[in-house]
Amino acid sequence: MSNQKPKLALYWASSCGGCEIAVLGLHEKILNVAEAFDIVFWPCVMDFKYADVEAMEDGEIDVCLFNGAIRNDENAHMAHLLRQKSKVLVAFGACSYGGSMPGLANFADREAMFQWIYFDSPSTVNPDGVVPQKRSDVPEGELRLPGFWNTVKTLAQVVPVDYFLPGCPPEASSIEIAINAIVSGELPPPGSVIGPDVTVCDECSRKKSEKKIQRFYRPQEIFPDPDICLLEQGLFCAGIATRSGCGAKCPSVGFGCRGCYGPNEGVLDHGAKILTGIASVLDAMTAEEAEAILDTLPDPAGYLYRFHLPDSLLRRKARGNGQRQPVGETSQREPA
Amino acid sequence: MSEPRVGVYVCHCGHNIAGTVDVEHVAEWALNLPNVVVSRENKFMCASTGQEQVEQDIKEFDLTHVVVASCSPHMHEKTFRNACARAGLNPYMFEMANIREHASWVHANDKDGATNKAKALVSAAVSRVIFHEPLEPMQVSIRPETLVVGGGIAGIQAALEIADAGYHVYLVEREPSIGGHMAMFDKTFPTLDCSACILTPKMFDVGAHPNITLLTYSEVERVDGYVGNFTVRVRKKAGMVDQDLCTGCGSCWESCPIRIVDNVFEAGLGHRKAIYRPFPQAVPKYPVIDVPNCTYYKSGKCRMCEKVCPTNAIRFDMQDEVVELEVGNIILTTGFKLFDARRVPNYGYGRLENVFTSLEFERLTNAAGPTEGKIVLRDGETPPQSVAIIHCVGSRDRNYNTHCSAICCMSSLKFAHLVMEKTGAQVYNFYIDMRPLHKGYEEFYHRIMDEGAQFIRGKVSEITDAARSPEEDGKLVVVCEDTLIGQQRRVPVDMVILAAGLEPRADAQAVGYMFGVGCGDTGFFTERHPKLDPVATVTEGVFIAGACQGAKDIPDSVAQGAAAAARVLGTISKREVALEPIRATIDEERCSGCRICNNMCPYHAIDFIEEKGVSRVNPALCKGCGTCVAACPSQVITGAHFTFDQLMAEIDGILVDVLSDQPIVEAV
Q1: Of B590, B626, B609, which Cα lies nearest the Cα of A201?
Q2: Do the chains contact at A274 and B633, CB–CB below 8 Å?
Q3: Is residue A226 domain-shared with residue A262, that is, in the same domain?
Q4: Which of B298, B302, B246 has its CA nearest to residue B276?
Q5: Do B594 and A239 lie within an 8 Å CB cutoff?
Q6: Exposed end of chain B (fewer CB within 10 Å): N or C?
Q7: Residue A324 has pLDDT above 90, yes or no
């Protein structure tokens, strides 16, 4: 076995495909990956069947890069399967790490989403009221769909994860650092996020001063000064509370950080940390003044929890009038 | 580190806790908590036997951490920390669970519930204490110089006490003379001795004291540093008079052609010149030029004062001077502002000419005042035949100030006496409650009643000049419900005196912010403890005394001034002070320099280090309040003794299922 190349698997669960593109963003270095690894599973670019994975020995895959959140039975099945078959499981990208965009659905639930998608959306025409069913009987036999969950989960909420690689998508430089670490075996302690433990501000070259925010602007409303901290100019920027590693790409072109690299080491709730930072520097003496300033920030929940709602302290909007649901509640795994 | 070994002590507090909480059960149950090696109950943990038990167990069981479940840490945290220290354990390895205020007292009717809550609180403390780290207090040296801000009677007293003890004092006063409100008064209650006669010797002592540097006509602009080592920037406003040459002879103000209504010292009743000293006994004796009103600064002409000055002391081109003082302690004695009686339109002040404020009356009756002590109506000659004194104007009134101004009952009685003595007029006191509560005050009240003053209990609704009957013609009519006879009354009088209340100074918030002192609901400076620490503040080395802390009369102001001085002298004689080690630190390796925390600190303890691009906490200034810790968006500021791990462990601990000993949520 020692002269064999290590086996690499890549999988996408509930994701947009951007992480797959990011891997290709390595450009010619992708050849180094192909040279260093034996790619045994990558449904996005090569034809594999789940049965191929099921047929593997436990732990046969050396490294699995798993992107996407867990939002349905199929995602969860593959998470369990790849965990079983992989020595090292990496939560690759913001969705598998923190839930990210798919996780914003935790502000609603399955019923509300189906109601919108299959009935209320202006582009929907559904006179027969058809909604997806987990099982449907058709003349040819029984059809099955994966069950759609009420709550989006992160990969680590479903199976144990060895490493986290943040980013939406992870920058090529971050992927390279991770791959090199895996190839060389110089890995941080299991459970670590691979990346520097400072925030985007550290890499951002804009001049920072003491802050006093009078109001927020949307990016299209102002031409920001090219040299001054965007937050000081009233542009929402999550860089104050977001792990660096991206090279401060967004702030450097005048667009506030959206927080895709997630929180720093030890932070339990990314959105709360962004909020506490911003709320601390509002130019307000009274609660009313503070509220008036915050009213100029549209969709605060979406801004604050864009990438980390499912792994925040609250995880989702309360269901059933905020009544606590019994632990081990199974209804969310029922099909629609 | 080896396994933690925790000792738990559950206090009965007599019946205070044990009457509600099943103390024996809590102690027995706590023995099953992780890391607990000994758990006991005790009648009074704070008694010497309780403390000795802790000390003995630390040695016998080799305890690494101690939890006492008893009262509020405000009561006895220090007691038990000291017990730990005596047994050789770092005092910060101790944690207190408050099962009295938080359990037995608030759930007196629910014994089971209170017991379960006590268990949860003990569990939280045990869970937290494991994460405690040994901390050492920080020693800082104390400069012996003291700054006193405000030259009223409280500040004068404080300055003299410290200076007499042999240490240097800088006394900063905004006005051209020290003396404050007391210098404006004629007599003081209840002894009726002459205010000036008892005050001016003290003022003179301040002016002549070798240990006092008097900075009048000056204001503090900036305060940096921390207890023992404050740097204070003071602006000495240009008075345009060279104090080294001036003899205070008075030629200048006698010859000055400009007469200005004196709204400060004479309460608008008298006049002063454009070059003036506020009153004859002023300390220092030197005049200042009121630049906005001086002809020279308007037209470049006049210079009369310069011409007549025998010592050539006038300096029209004098500039403000900024001095930096290095001091170890600061006493704020910034005093009060009189309630503006115009705010009560139904009392007619400013509209009805013979309605006076208490301060106006003080000037009226003062022998050195504008009428040379004659009590007359606004026309300057007619003595009143009848006078109404309205108590509680702007005080004890939810429309203005809810607090009692503390001095108005007594000054109103004093006014009544002076009116009767000097004019023989009939005096009516309109009061809500009489509160003559200090030594000799009740006796004074009876004396004034015996002298013939009338007392009508009721809040005055209106003062009007609209007569309803011939005897009200040309009079001021005081309308009020007399609550003792249950009738509406209309009392016609010639003169009304409004006993205006005491308010915080208009700039109290800003001044408090500069010195790191908060203002309470009423706007007065907040003391560290209302009963047990009335002159200290939350900022180490900054003390408050007199009416800036709350409305009070002269004896109380003097007592507080002396008390603050004693506190300052205490720290000076110790030469150094130990600061609580509970403070914030920034991990410079992980700080990204976002500067969110920079303007959060109420104590100005955070600096931004430009070269490194990181923020830093000055440990001597930090009070450990935790504001920056919470604000830091990258969680790289740690509050010692309130670390993230400690707080999360405490939360995990309190979420224990008290019936099954299991945490109800998994540890995060």
Answers
A1: B590
A2: yes
A3: yes
A4: B246
A5: yes
A6: N
A7: no
